[in-house]
Each structure stands twice: as C-alpha cells, then as structure tokens.
Design brief:
By secondary structure, the protein is of the alpha+beta class. Strand 6 and strand 7 form a beta hairpin. The longest helix has 23 residues.
Length: 194
C-alpha cells in the first residue's frame, strides 16, 4: 500500500490520542502532509478512533479530493480545515484537531493559559476561534485566517469544540496537543482552588 509508513504513523498517533482522551470514539481528526507535494493523509469520518489501522487512512490530493485509488470510508468532515492550513502554511507537516475535554472547557470560558510552568509558556498567545458548526466552511476559514494573523502560533482553541495544533511533523503536533490539554487542566484546577 502506498505511503504505508505514513499511514502507520497516523494510525498510531490517532490511537495514542484516543487513549489519552484527547479524541473521542468518532470525534477529532488528524492529517499528515505527504512528501513531494503529493497531498495528505487524513483520518476517516465516523470511524472508531481507538482502533484505527493504516489501511483506514484516506489519501487526498492538494485540493482535498480523494486520490484515484481511494476507496473505503470518506475523509474527515474537517478536511477543509486541514486543507486550508496546508495551503496557508507550506512548512506545516501535520494538523491535529481534538475534542479534548479541558480544552473545550477553556474555550467555553475564554480562559487564558497562565505561564505557571515552563511548558505552559508556549501557550502565552493562544487565539480562540468563535464557535462555528463542525465541518463548516466558516470554521475552516476562521481557523486559517487566525493562523495567518498569528504566524508563530502552533495551537488554537475552538470555542465549544476543542483545539487545533500544527507542527512540522505529526509528533510535534501531537506533543503540542498533549501539552495544551495538560495546560488547560492545570489552569482549570488553579481557578477552582482560588
């Protein structure tokens, strides 16, 4: 199967984020840019994320259309969000959107992440995207516009919806997502203990 190594990596990180409770049974999506400008791989829509395998990944071209050999489940409903980020930021190799619970709470209450630890410093500038329906063109456009306005940002909160992280590779994007969810948890606990 073409791009087998990349498919395995995407499936492995999807299962990891499911175990860590950042993505839900069918909520959340990950993508990985393919080498040589050949498009990207994305997780399928409506498929249990805790058991994703390499053959489940959907191959899309640079316009977000399924590759000719593609068959099986449809791509994530957030394909447009991933596509717009890749078109905007050529250096980005991976995009992750999760439904992480602490990030949802932080977004709902428009929380700032205080620099309580060294790791939390990276979220000093954390833009919040207003709520738009999942999979909507408005959500994709607002996300891309915010990243364009904040070129050094690697993480965004989506109001009532979770988070988006970007990285030069999938591991970097996943590490940022894990760190942001932990930063949101710490921030929420600190507010509760005031």
């Amino acid at each position: 199967m073409k791009y087998h190594k990349f498919r395995q990596q995407l499936a492995r990180v999807s299962r990891e984020l499911y175990r860590e409770k950042l993505i839900t049974a069918t909520g959340g999506n990950l993508s990985l840019r393919l080498p040589g400008g050949e498009g990207f791989l994305i997780t399928p829509s409506g498929t249990f994320k805790g058991e994703l395998q390499s053959h489940s990944m959907v191959t899309l071209d640079n316009r977000g259309y399924p590759a000719v050999e593609a068959s099986g489940p449809p791509p994530s409903i957030e394909t447009s969000l991933h596509l717009q980020i890749y078109q905007l930021r050529k250096e980005i190799g991976a995009v992750i959107h999760t439904h992480a619970p602490a990030a949802i709470i932080a977004g709902l209450y428009e929380m700032n992440i205080p620099p309580l630890t060294r790791e939390m410093l990276q979220f000093k500038e954390l833009p919040l995207i207003p709520y738009y329906p999942p999979g909507s063109p408005e959500l994709a456009t607002a996300t891309a516009a915010t990243l364009e306005k904040h070129p050094t940002v690697r993480a965004l909160l989506l109001q009532n919806h979770g988070l988006v992280t970007i990285g030069s590779n999938l591991r970097e994007a996943a590490n940022i997502a894990l760190s942001l969810e932990e930063a949101c948890r710490i921030s929420i606990l600190c507010r509760l203990l005031k």
